[in-house]
Amino acid sequence: MRQLSPQQISELLNQSADKPVLIDVREPFEVEICAIEGSTNIPLQQIAEAAEDLDPDKEYVLICHHGMRSQRAGMIMAAQGFEKLINLVGGIDAWACNIDPQMQRY
Predict the structure, then answer these.
(1) Annotated active-site positions, please?
(2) What pLDDT, on a 0 to 100 scale, did the predictor assign at position 16?
(3) Residue 61: enclosing H or E segment and its boundaries?
(4) CA gyration radius for the chain?
(5) DSSP string, 7-56
(6) pLDDT at 18
(7) How far apart are CA 71 and CA 19, in angstroms?
(8) What distance in Å separates the CA atoms of residue 17 and residue 20, rounded to the nearest whole number?
(9) Cα distance between the two ends of the chain
């Protein structure tokens, strides 16, 4: 799993014609506070089951609050055969600080 900074992911999302899928593994109440536009919420505890319905050939950016739950989600998905995984280093908090300063933080 690649570890990319918010800046690197922002560039990837802005430049890539075939954009990666954004999966936010936080709890729904956290996503209500703030989220990256276009992300899909699949809480960590549901990721193994949900991965059965995801395309292992696509690229996924995994997002959580600070980067630890998303790292765990990536390990779960990698064990299920997913190879194109990116962890947002620093999570949504780093995204808010570096990319979207108007985003609410918690």
Answers:
(1) 64
(2) 66
(3) strand 60-63
(4) 13
(5) HHHHHHHHH-SSPPEEEE-S-HHHHHH---TT-EE--GGGHHHHHTTS-T
(6) 85
(7) 20
(8) 9
(9) 26
Q: Give the model's pLDDT for residue 15.
A: 87
Query: CATH classification of 2-98 is 3.40.250.10, yes or no?
Result: yes
The C-alpha atoms of residue 40 and residue 60 are separated, in whole angstroms, by: 11
CA nearest to 9, candidates 104, 91, 83: 91
Report CA-CA distances (Å) from 39 to 79, 88, 91, 100.
22, 13, 13, 15
For the record, the structure tokens of 50 come out as: 């949900």
pLDDT tens digits in sequence order for the chain, 106 residues long: 999 999 999 999 998 688 999 999 999 999 999 999 999 999 999 999 999 999 999 999 999 999 999 999 999 999 999 999 999 999 999 999 999 999 999 9
